[in-house]
Design a protein that fits this description.
Layout (H helix, E strand, L loop, with lengths): L6 E8 L6 H9 L17 E6 L3 E7 L9 H15 L3 E6 L9 H8 L5 E5 L9 H10 L6 E4 L8 H11 L17 H16 L9 E9 L3 E10 L2 H8 L4 H18 L2 E10 L7 H6 L5
Parallel strand pairs: 1-3, 1-4, 4-5, 5-6, 8-9
Antiparallel strand pairs: 2-3, 7-8
Helix pairs in contact: 6-8
């Protein structure tokens, strides 16, 4: 294997919230690395996942959904999106049957002027009505300077193999960027926090999931068990009460669901302790965001 025969590059997945970017990356990689939820804005960080083959390495990057920032947190999330435009070898622009370019016109302009090959992926076609896919395709091909259009259903894994072939056709010749045994660039404790955060999105409504952040204070791995101490941060005392629930039942449910998911993810028994603390208005405070890893 040499640089002249091996392909490697960065494929960055970009789109508005809730169009299925995380589901798509998980399907392409064959692992659950990104949070999946019916609620929008679940991905807050840029999460990389790798596909390794003897002849190529694809470094996928799932980015937060493009939005008009309302908090410092949103600004940090959008910085991950803009950064992903700078190092991409291929851009997967993902949309669905229902989204428009409203509020993201400036990002689309940057994408079109990036000089990077763009694959326009239209998701959720399993839900399409007669003539809808054609109308959506016409709408987006006027706005995105795409090399090709790929209609898919990420949840059904329909036509996703074509995405891989289109990527490989455009990937540059290069030596691997990461060890071939690696699956992601994120540490294990990051995924522990993401799993807990996913269960918060599933179990709570309204503003609670968006006001919550998870910090892994301790992560001790032994031969047969991993011991984890996690703190769930919220913005107000009233939210703390909702997270804990009557008699601690709500928090216990989240902890149980997270523990089961972690045991599947890490392949070991998990001992999980969860606590809840208040960090006033953390989404609006740059210093507090830095503490949670939003340091872009």
């Amino acid at each position: 294997m040499t640089e002249n025969t091996h392909k490697a590059g960065f494929v960055n997945i970009i789109g508005k919230p809730n169009v299925g970017k995380s589901t798509l990356m998980n399907v392409l990689i064959g692992e659950r690395l990104s949070i999946i939820s019916s609620k929008a804005q679940t991905t807050r960080h840029r999460i990389m996942g790798l596909i390794n083959d003897e002849h190529y390495q694809i470094v996928f990057s799932d980015t937060p959904g493009m939005l008009k920032p309302k908090y410092e947190l949103h600004k940090s999330m959008m910085s991950f999106v803009h950064m992903s435009l700078e190092d991409a070898d291929v851009i997967l622009f993902v949309t669905d049957l229902y989204e428009s370019d409203e509020e993201i016109e400036d990002v689309i302009e940057k994408i079109n002027h990036s000089g990077v090959p763009i694959l326009l992926v239209i998701n959720k076609i399993d839900l399409s009505k007669e003539g809808q896919l054609e109308a959506v395709t016409a709408y987006w091909t006027q706005r995105i300077k795409a090399d090709t259009v790929i209609p898919i259903s990420a949840t059904e894994s329909f036509n996703t193999e074509r995405i891989l072939q289109e990527i490989l056709d455009r990937l540059p010749f290069h030596a691997p960027f990461y060890d071939k045994d690696e699956l992601t660039d994120k540490p294990e404790r990051f995924f522990a926090s993401e799993i807990i955060r996913e269960k918060i999105f599933i179990n709570y409504k309204k503003e609670i999931p968006y006001s919550s952040e998870v910090s892994i204070e301790d992560f001790f791995e032994e031969e047969k068990i991993i011991r984890i101490r996690a703190v769930i941060y919220v913005e107000r005392d009233s939210q703390k009460g909702i997270i804990i629930g009557e008699g601690g039942k709500a928090l216990k449910r989240v902890g149980t669901q997270a523990r089961h998911e972690m045991e599947k993810f890490f392949g070991k028994k998990i001992f999980l302790e969860t606590f809840v603390k208040v960090e006033d208005d953390w989404r609006k405070d740059k210093n507090k965001l830095r503490k949670f890893g939003y340091d872009q």
